[in-house]
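Section handout, structural biology tutorial.
Before the tutorial, make sure you can parse a SMILES string by hand: atoms, branches in parentheses, ring closures as digits. In the record below the ligand is S-adenosylmethionine, and the chain has 252 residues. In the tutorial you will relate the predicted structure tokens back to the input. Do not try to memorize them.
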Amino acid sequence: MTEEISHNRELWNGVNTAFTDRDGERRWLEPDLRWGLFARPESELVLLGDVAGLDVVELGCGTAGLSAWLARHGARPVGVDLSPAQLRTARRCQRRWGPEFPLVEADGEQVPLRSAVADLVVSEHGVGAWCEPERWVPEAARLLRPGGRLVFMTNSLLSALCVPDDPGPAGDRLLRGVDDVRTVRWDGGGVEHHPGHGEWVGVLGRSGFTVDALHELRPPVGAVDPEWYEIVSARWAGRWPAEDIWVARRTG
Ligand SMILES: C[S@@+](CC[C@H](N)C(=O)[O-])C[C@H]1O[C@@H](n2cnc3c(N)ncnc32)[C@H](O)[C@@H]1O
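Predicted structure of the complex:
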């Protein structure tokens, strides 16, 4: 494990204790799948569609509310995450509320699963920011069967350019250049990767994917500011997209 990966592992163990252990329980029980900072419902966005019968790998599953939703809708998910604390919360939710499905403690850049095991690889603010694209995107391609889909959400490049060094929400000024956030170690935070759209298209293409869509999400009218991951306000994200969702198919 690289120093960056083990740093992020410690960070997420701490975030779990501070926030997501409690939040994860609530998210597990949500009847609809909620995407991102402003909890946009899957029933409205229809990014995954009918998942019944699909083999799915969720990379950076965290407390695995998304995989729980998949399992309740007839899919066979496997959740993969680096943080033992996040997976502990997921296991507790499985025991308390069901459904049960496999959870694997591993780095999304090197997943200990066989090739071609999945029809869908999904990640909601998981590997998109926390892993090196040149390593995790080919790994997602390896896990997918031909024709399988990759759907992942990550922070927009623009939000990474505008977030201040002190913790706090993004303002209306560019505070750094694109090269500064391609790989960035935030003060007191983790190591993240924020390529531009052109680079995403390049790495997806080289890894055998065809891009079907890029959704630049905006909050709904009346959205409230995120509770604990306050990188942008609802007002900011209403003016500039703060979150991207990529939808791609393994064609190569
Ligand atoms: C924002 S959280 C995930 C949110 C998730 N959708 C949920 O509902 O809990 C990011 C997750 O990525 C995980 N992560 C960070 N680096 C990772 C890596 N290299 N491999 C796998 N997971 C990683 C963290 O442990 C954390 O659980």
